[in-house]
Each structure stands twice: as structure tokens, then as C-alpha cells.
Amino acid sequence: MRVTGLWFYPVKGCRGVQAAEVRLSDTGIRGDREFVIVDDKGLFLTQRDVPELARIDALYRGNTLVLASDDREELVVQLDAPGRPREVQVWSSRGIGADTGDEAAVWLGRLLGRPVRLVRAGPRWQRSFSYGGQTGPLAFADGYPLLLVGEASLNDLNERLPEPVPMMRFRPNIVVDGIPAYGEDALVRAQRPGVVLRGVKPCVRCVVTTTDQMTGQRDDRSEPLRTLARYRNDRSIRGVKFGMNVAVGEGAGATLHVGDVFEAVFS
């Protein structure tokens, strides 16, 4: 199994960054979903309810986080700023993050048309996942540290769709080749010297897959979710599956590169 693509998402729900290499951490990829946009009650926002988030570029530049959208002036957030404590809720998890300040809140609020705050997962943020006997820490990812998708799976899906969709619709972290279509469903672990990735559970897909990741527009035919529902519905996990959630078993601090080859074990 060979790594053919790497992605991370500095701000939950915003556009992803494609990279040639990433640094692994206990929570997945260092810097992935390190920030979240919340409403005035501290509840997290995602593309499920706010598809316009796809119009926001988010990337790290030196010691800053830079946000950009359309013709707006960039927003620059200093990573070394301590930030005021703010309560955040991500699904059922509540905790304390670090608010990045009024400038970020105003910039995002004007773009999204609602009062919001940009919050970072600081040292006080404590959250974890638990499934099938596996546990581990999380930043602001939905439920698990990493998402792995096989290229063959997307190829098979695209042959069934009225129009093909790009891999970025599924917001993966790790893209691989060398396994059959949907082979990642049965991934137990993938290893290379110094790194072990553990399969946790297949990923249940939602309306975000129908959202153009450049424009924020929903597909008026609900594709590719509509087609996936015809043959990828899994009652055991109560949803339509595509891709595999994985966790870092060993290798926090190691660098993962496009082109890395892993020995994969399947159930």
C-alpha cells in the first residue's frame, strides 16, 4: 500500500491543504483541525450546516494561521498568542479552547453572516475517541484522528456516478493505492519503519460529500451520497460508508511522505 496523497485541514470545515509531507501526532496530523469556528453559544460549525466554509482557505505560514476567501483581505492569526479561554462544544464533547480574538471574529462573522468566534485547541482542550476497545486523543476532528481512502474506491464510485467527483469531496487525510476498491474497509493496521496506523472503523458519510470544496455549492442531485447509499449502506454502523477512520498507533512525531510504502494487514 503506497501513500499517493496527504491532506490536512487547519480550521475544521474550511478548505484542506494538500502536502508532500506531514508530521504525525497523537491526534493525527500535526495542525489538523487545530482550530474551529463556533457560534455565539460555543457550538462548532461545519459544512453540514454552513457549506460556505468551503470558500475559506486556511493555511499555516511561519508562526501564523492565514485565512483567505474571494477578494477579501487576508486574516492573519498569531499562533503564539495565548488567547482567552472559551467553552467549545464539538458533538457531545465540551471543553475549553483558546479564543483567537475579535479581529478574527469580525472577519469571519462578516463572511458567514452570523456572530462567530475562531477557537484554537489549546492546552486546556481535552477530548478523546473510544471505539471497539481503541481510545486516543482528539483535537477538533469529527470523531477520529485520521481518514484514509483508497484511490480504487473513488475510481469505482466515479464509474457509477453521472459525473465524477474529485477526492477532495471526501476530505481525506491519507490517500493510498495498491489495494482493491473498498479494501480499506477491512484495514486492521498499516505499518512502515517507525509508524503504525490502526484501523478504527469505516467512515459514515454525510451531506458534506455533496458540497463543492471550491465554491461551497451543494450538488442538486445529492451526489455522490445518493449513489453511495445504493450500495454502501452498512446497518452495523448506521450509515453510508466510504473511507476508513484510523489512529496513530506508533510514530507520533514521525514524518509521513507521499510515496511512503506501508505493509497493510486486513481482517
Describe the structure.
With 267 residues, this protein is mostly beta strands. The chain folds into two domains: 2-28 and 129-266, Beta Barrel (M1 Pyruvate Kinase, Domain 3), CATH 2.40.33.20; 31-126, no CATH class. It is 10% helix and 41% strand. It has helices spanning 102-112, 151-160, 225-231; strands at residues 2-8, 17-19, 21-25, 28-29, 35-39, 57-61, 64-68, 75-78, 84-90, 93-99, 116-120, 128-131, 134-137, 146-150, 174-177, 187-192, 195-204, 233-234, 239-250, 255-257, 263-266. Strands 1, 2, 14, 15, 16, 17, 18, 19 and 21 form a nine-stranded mixed sheet that branches. A four-stranded antiparallel sheet has the order 5-11-10-9. A hairpin with a 2-residue loop joins strand 6 and strand 7. It is globular and about 50 Å long. It starts with a strand and ends with a strand. The mean pLDDT is 97.
